Amino acid sequence: MPQPLKIAVQKSGRLLDGSLALLKECGIKIDNGKNQLKANARNYPLEVYYLRNSDIPGYVHDGVADIAIIGQNTITEKDLDLEEILPLGFSKCRLSIAVPKEVEYTGDNWLNGKKIATSYPTSLRQFLDRKGIKADIHVISGSVEIAPNIGLADAICDLVSSGNTLFRNGLKEVEVMLKSEAALFARRDLPQEKQNLLDQLVFRLKSVQAAGNNKYLLMNAPNENVERIIEVLPGMKSPTVMPLAESGWSSIHTVISEDRFWEIIDQLKALGGQGILVIPIEKMIL
Ligand code: PRP
Question: Which of 19, 33, 145, 233 is deepest in the core (most CB within 10 A)?
Protein backbone atom coordinates (compact mmCIF):
# COMPACT_ATOMS: atom_id res chain seq x y z
CA MET A 1 0.00 0.00 0.00
CA PRO A 2 1.72 3.27 -1.07
CA GLN A 3 1.89 6.25 1.26
CA PRO A 4 -1.06 8.50 0.37
CA LEU A 5 -0.45 11.83 -1.28
CA LYS A 6 -1.41 14.59 1.16
CA ILE A 7 -3.25 17.52 -0.37
CA ALA A 8 -4.09 20.77 1.43
CA VAL A 9 -7.19 22.72 0.43
CA GLN A 10 -8.88 25.75 1.96
CA LYS A 11 -10.94 25.04 5.07
CA SER A 12 -13.25 27.84 4.02
CA GLY A 13 -13.03 30.56 1.44
CA ARG A 14 -13.40 31.14 -2.24
CA LEU A 15 -11.31 28.23 -3.45
CA LEU A 16 -12.92 25.48 -1.39
CA ASP A 17 -15.92 24.66 -3.60
CA GLY A 18 -13.89 24.79 -6.81
CA SER A 19 -11.16 22.60 -5.32
CA LEU A 20 -13.56 19.90 -4.16
CA ALA A 21 -15.53 20.03 -7.42
CA LEU A 22 -12.34 19.50 -9.40
CA LEU A 23 -11.26 16.49 -7.33
CA LYS A 24 -14.75 15.04 -7.82
CA GLU A 25 -14.51 15.53 -11.58
CA CYS A 26 -11.25 13.60 -11.42
CA GLY A 27 -13.28 10.69 -10.03
CA ILE A 28 -11.89 11.06 -6.50
CA LYS A 29 -14.45 10.38 -3.79
CA ILE A 30 -13.77 12.03 -0.46
CA ASP A 31 -15.45 11.05 2.80
CA ASN A 32 -16.04 14.48 4.14
CA GLY A 33 -17.67 14.66 7.54
CA LYS A 34 -18.87 18.07 8.62
CA ASN A 35 -16.15 20.06 10.39
CA GLN A 36 -13.67 17.30 9.75
CA LEU A 37 -10.23 18.77 9.12
CA LYS A 38 -8.73 15.65 7.60
CA ALA A 39 -10.43 13.24 5.24
CA ASN A 40 -9.44 10.26 3.12
CA ALA A 41 -10.32 9.62 -0.48
CA ARG A 42 -12.19 6.33 -0.81
CA ASN A 43 -10.82 5.34 -4.20
CA TYR A 44 -7.45 7.10 -4.49
CA PRO A 45 -4.44 7.19 -2.18
CA LEU A 46 -5.11 10.77 -1.18
CA GLU A 47 -5.47 12.43 2.24
CA VAL A 48 -7.18 15.81 2.25
CA TYR A 49 -6.27 18.44 4.86
CA TYR A 50 -8.62 21.38 5.27
CA LEU A 51 -6.43 24.28 6.38
CA ARG A 52 -6.50 28.05 6.78
CA ASN A 53 -5.57 29.67 3.51
CA SER A 54 -2.58 31.59 4.82
CA ASP A 55 -1.14 28.49 6.56
CA ILE A 56 -1.20 26.30 3.45
CA PRO A 57 2.07 27.41 1.77
CA GLY A 58 4.03 26.85 4.99
CA TYR A 59 2.55 23.39 5.55
CA VAL A 60 3.44 22.32 2.02
CA HIS A 61 6.92 23.85 2.26
CA ASP A 62 7.56 22.00 5.53
CA GLY A 63 6.27 18.70 4.13
CA VAL A 64 3.19 18.41 6.37
CA ALA A 65 1.25 18.30 3.10
CA ASP A 66 2.73 17.28 -0.25
CA ILE A 67 0.61 19.38 -2.57
CA ALA A 68 -2.06 22.08 -2.36
CA ILE A 69 -4.74 23.81 -4.34
CA ILE A 70 -4.24 27.47 -3.56
CA GLY A 71 -4.24 30.92 -5.14
CA GLN A 72 -1.02 31.89 -6.88
CA ASN A 73 -1.19 35.22 -5.04
CA THR A 74 -0.94 33.46 -1.66
CA ILE A 75 2.26 31.71 -2.72
CA THR A 76 3.73 34.99 -3.98
CA GLU A 77 2.85 36.65 -0.71
CA LYS A 78 4.45 33.93 1.42
CA ASP A 79 7.52 33.98 -0.84
CA LEU A 80 8.21 30.25 -0.35
CA ASP A 81 9.88 27.97 -2.85
CA LEU A 82 7.07 25.66 -4.01
CA GLU A 83 6.66 24.23 -7.47
CA GLU A 84 3.64 25.35 -9.49
CA ILE A 85 2.41 22.19 -11.20
CA LEU A 86 -0.72 23.34 -13.01
CA PRO A 87 -2.88 26.47 -13.12
CA LEU A 88 -6.48 25.37 -12.60
CA GLY A 89 -8.44 28.13 -14.30
CA PHE A 90 -10.82 29.10 -11.48
CA SER A 91 -10.91 31.79 -8.76
CA LYS A 92 -9.29 34.27 -11.10
CA CYS A 93 -8.52 37.60 -9.49
CA ARG A 94 -5.90 40.31 -9.39
CA LEU A 95 -3.96 42.00 -6.63
CA SER A 96 -4.47 45.71 -7.20
CA ILE A 97 -4.00 49.12 -5.74
CA ALA A 98 -7.14 51.23 -5.41
CA VAL A 99 -7.75 54.80 -4.36
CA PRO A 100 -10.88 56.85 -3.53
CA LYS A 101 -12.72 57.46 -6.78
CA GLU A 102 -12.44 61.26 -6.53
CA VAL A 103 -8.61 61.10 -6.47
CA GLU A 104 -6.91 62.40 -9.62
CA TYR A 105 -4.47 59.55 -10.01
CA THR A 106 -1.57 60.67 -12.15
CA GLY A 107 0.39 57.41 -12.26
CA ASP A 108 2.34 55.36 -9.71
CA ASN A 109 4.26 58.50 -8.61
CA TRP A 110 1.07 59.53 -6.83
CA LEU A 111 1.75 56.74 -4.30
CA ASN A 112 5.00 58.39 -3.08
CA GLY A 113 4.67 59.38 0.54
CA LYS A 114 1.19 57.87 0.83
CA LYS A 115 -0.11 55.34 3.32
CA ILE A 116 -1.37 52.07 1.76
CA ALA A 117 -3.44 49.56 3.74
CA THR A 118 -3.12 45.89 2.80
CA SER A 119 -3.15 42.28 3.92
CA TYR A 120 -0.45 41.57 1.30
CA PRO A 121 2.62 43.48 2.57
CA THR A 122 5.25 41.31 0.87
CA SER A 123 3.71 41.59 -2.58
CA LEU A 124 3.12 45.31 -2.10
CA ARG A 125 6.67 45.89 -0.87
CA GLN A 126 8.06 44.05 -3.91
CA PHE A 127 5.88 46.15 -6.23
CA LEU A 128 6.86 49.46 -4.60
CA ASP A 129 10.57 48.57 -4.59
CA ARG A 130 10.41 47.56 -8.24
CA LYS A 131 8.89 50.94 -9.09
CA GLY A 132 11.17 52.91 -6.74
CA ILE A 133 8.21 54.24 -4.75
CA LYS A 134 8.52 55.17 -1.08
CA ALA A 135 5.19 54.63 0.66
CA ASP A 136 4.09 53.61 4.11
CA ILE A 137 2.56 50.11 4.27
CA HIS A 138 -0.12 49.64 6.90
CA VAL A 139 -0.90 45.96 7.48
CA ILE A 140 -4.47 44.98 8.37
CA SER A 141 -5.89 41.48 8.18
CA GLY A 142 -9.29 42.09 6.61
CA SER A 143 -11.93 44.58 5.45
CA VAL A 144 -9.13 46.53 3.84
CA GLU A 145 -11.47 48.46 1.54
CA ILE A 146 -12.83 50.43 4.45
CA ALA A 147 -9.42 51.95 5.34
CA PRO A 148 -9.56 55.12 3.17
CA ASN A 149 -13.12 55.87 4.35
CA ILE A 150 -12.14 55.89 7.99
CA GLY A 151 -8.96 57.90 7.47
CA LEU A 152 -6.63 54.97 8.03
CA ALA A 153 -4.93 55.09 4.64
CA ASP A 154 -4.78 56.99 1.34
CA ALA A 155 -4.95 53.85 -0.80
CA ILE A 156 -5.40 50.12 -0.47
CA CYS A 157 -3.85 47.04 -1.99
CA ASP A 158 -6.21 44.06 -2.08
CA LEU A 159 -7.66 41.29 -4.22
CA VAL A 160 -10.18 42.31 -6.83
CA SER A 161 -12.41 39.86 -8.60
CA SER A 162 -15.70 41.35 -9.80
CA GLY A 163 -14.77 44.82 -8.53
CA ASN A 164 -18.00 45.02 -6.48
CA THR A 165 -16.28 45.54 -3.16
CA LEU A 166 -14.24 48.46 -4.52
CA PHE A 167 -17.34 50.00 -6.08
CA ARG A 168 -19.39 49.66 -2.91
CA ASN A 169 -16.64 51.42 -0.96
CA GLY A 170 -16.20 54.31 -3.38
CA LEU A 171 -12.79 53.14 -4.63
CA LYS A 172 -11.28 52.74 -8.09
CA GLU A 173 -8.60 50.33 -9.25
CA VAL A 174 -5.48 52.16 -10.45
CA GLU A 175 -2.68 49.57 -10.57
CA VAL A 176 -2.88 45.84 -11.24
CA MET A 177 0.12 44.39 -9.41
CA LEU A 178 -0.39 40.75 -10.31
CA LYS A 179 -2.97 38.36 -11.74
CA SER A 180 -3.79 35.17 -9.96
CA GLU A 181 -5.87 32.01 -10.17
CA ALA A 182 -6.15 28.74 -8.28
CA ALA A 183 -3.26 26.41 -9.04
CA LEU A 184 -1.84 23.09 -7.94
CA PHE A 185 1.44 23.51 -6.07
CA ALA A 186 3.82 20.83 -4.74
CA ARG A 187 6.71 20.79 -2.36
CA ARG A 188 10.14 20.31 -3.88
CA ASP A 189 11.76 16.86 -3.97
CA LEU A 190 8.71 14.66 -3.54
CA PRO A 191 9.68 11.01 -2.98
CA GLN A 192 9.31 8.99 -6.18
CA GLU A 193 6.20 7.06 -5.13
CA LYS A 194 4.40 10.31 -4.27
CA GLN A 195 5.62 11.87 -7.50
CA ASN A 196 3.99 8.94 -9.34
CA LEU A 197 0.68 9.60 -7.56
CA LEU A 198 0.97 13.30 -8.38
CA ASP A 199 1.63 12.49 -12.06
CA GLN A 200 -1.56 10.38 -12.13
CA LEU A 201 -3.56 13.16 -10.51
CA VAL A 202 -2.19 15.74 -12.96
CA PHE A 203 -3.09 13.43 -15.85
CA ARG A 204 -6.69 13.35 -14.60
CA LEU A 205 -6.77 17.11 -14.04
CA LYS A 206 -5.53 17.78 -17.56
CA SER A 207 -8.15 15.42 -18.99
CA VAL A 208 -10.88 17.31 -17.11
CA GLN A 209 -9.48 20.66 -18.27
CA ALA A 210 -9.19 19.57 -21.89
CA ALA A 211 -12.77 18.31 -21.85
CA GLY A 212 -13.99 21.60 -20.43
CA ASN A 213 -12.45 23.56 -23.27
CA ASN A 214 -13.66 21.29 -26.03
CA LYS A 215 -16.99 20.22 -27.49
CA TYR A 216 -18.06 17.29 -29.59
CA LEU A 217 -19.50 18.58 -32.86
CA LEU A 218 -21.90 16.64 -35.10
CA MET A 219 -23.44 17.89 -38.30
CA ASN A 220 -24.97 16.72 -41.54
CA ALA A 221 -23.71 18.08 -44.83
CA PRO A 222 -24.13 17.46 -48.56
CA ASN A 223 -21.38 15.16 -49.88
CA GLU A 224 -20.11 17.69 -52.40
CA ASN A 225 -19.15 20.08 -49.55
CA VAL A 226 -17.62 17.57 -47.14
CA GLU A 227 -14.03 18.27 -48.19
CA ARG A 228 -14.41 22.02 -47.86
CA ILE A 229 -16.06 21.60 -44.44
CA ILE A 230 -13.13 19.42 -43.32
CA GLU A 231 -10.75 22.21 -44.33
CA VAL A 232 -12.65 24.61 -42.08
CA LEU A 233 -12.79 22.24 -39.09
CA PRO A 234 -9.74 22.38 -36.79
CA GLY A 235 -10.29 18.91 -35.27
CA MET A 236 -7.95 16.85 -33.07
CA LYS A 237 -7.26 14.60 -36.03
CA SER A 238 -9.17 14.02 -39.21
CA PRO A 239 -12.94 14.17 -38.55
CA THR A 240 -15.14 11.08 -38.84
CA VAL A 241 -17.35 11.11 -41.93
CA MET A 242 -20.21 8.62 -42.23
CA PRO A 243 -22.85 8.26 -44.93
CA LEU A 244 -26.42 9.14 -43.98
CA ALA A 245 -29.39 6.93 -44.94
CA GLU A 246 -30.40 9.71 -47.33
CA SER A 247 -28.15 9.45 -50.37
CA GLY A 248 -25.88 12.40 -51.14
CA TRP A 249 -25.50 13.36 -47.45
CA SER A 250 -22.94 12.60 -44.77
CA SER A 251 -22.65 12.99 -41.04
CA ILE A 252 -19.44 14.68 -39.83
CA HIS A 253 -18.15 14.29 -36.25
CA THR A 254 -15.21 16.06 -34.65
CA VAL A 255 -13.88 17.68 -31.46
CA ILE A 256 -13.46 21.41 -31.47
CA SER A 257 -12.70 24.14 -28.95
CA GLU A 258 -15.77 26.15 -28.07
CA ASP A 259 -14.15 29.48 -29.01
CA ARG A 260 -13.16 28.16 -32.41
CA PHE A 261 -16.69 26.83 -32.96
CA TRP A 262 -18.21 30.32 -32.77
CA GLU A 263 -15.61 31.57 -35.22
CA ILE A 264 -16.50 29.02 -37.92
CA ILE A 265 -20.23 28.47 -37.42
CA ASP A 266 -21.16 30.85 -40.23
CA GLN A 267 -18.82 29.09 -42.65
CA LEU A 268 -20.27 25.70 -41.71
CA LYS A 269 -23.79 26.97 -42.36
CA ALA A 270 -22.76 28.59 -45.65
CA LEU A 271 -21.34 25.21 -46.74
CA GLY A 272 -24.72 23.56 -46.15
CA GLY A 273 -24.10 22.23 -42.64
CA GLN A 274 -27.41 21.21 -41.04
CA GLY A 275 -28.59 19.71 -37.76
CA ILE A 276 -25.45 21.01 -36.05
CA LEU A 277 -25.10 19.62 -32.52
CA VAL A 278 -22.50 20.78 -29.99
CA ILE A 279 -22.22 18.38 -27.08
CA PRO A 280 -20.18 18.71 -23.84
CA ILE A 281 -17.36 16.24 -23.32
CA GLU A 282 -16.92 14.83 -19.83
CA LYS A 283 -13.30 13.66 -20.07
CA MET A 284 -10.77 13.92 -22.84
CA ILE A 285 -7.68 11.72 -22.70
CA LEU A 286 -4.77 13.47 -24.39
C1 PRP B 1 -11.79 39.30 -1.22
C2 PRP B 1 -10.95 40.56 -1.23
C3 PRP B 1 -11.96 41.64 -1.50
C4 PRP B 1 -13.04 40.94 -2.29
C5 PRP B 1 -12.97 41.32 -3.72
O6 PRP B 1 -12.33 39.09 0.02
O7 PRP B 1 -10.27 40.73 -0.01
O8 PRP B 1 -12.47 42.16 -0.32
O9 PRP B 1 -12.82 39.54 -2.17
O10 PRP B 1 -13.94 40.66 -4.50
P11 PRP B 1 -14.87 41.43 -5.53
O12 PRP B 1 -13.96 42.24 -6.42
O13 PRP B 1 -15.57 40.34 -6.32
O14 PRP B 1 -15.81 42.27 -4.75
P15 PRP B 1 -13.05 37.70 0.41
O16 PRP B 1 -14.51 37.88 0.33
O17 PRP B 1 -12.50 36.56 -0.40
O18 PRP B 1 -12.67 37.53 1.89
P19 PRP B 1 -11.36 37.97 2.68
O20 PRP B 1 -11.65 39.36 3.15
O21 PRP B 1 -11.27 36.97 3.77
O22 PRP B 1 -10.19 37.92 1.75
Answer: 19
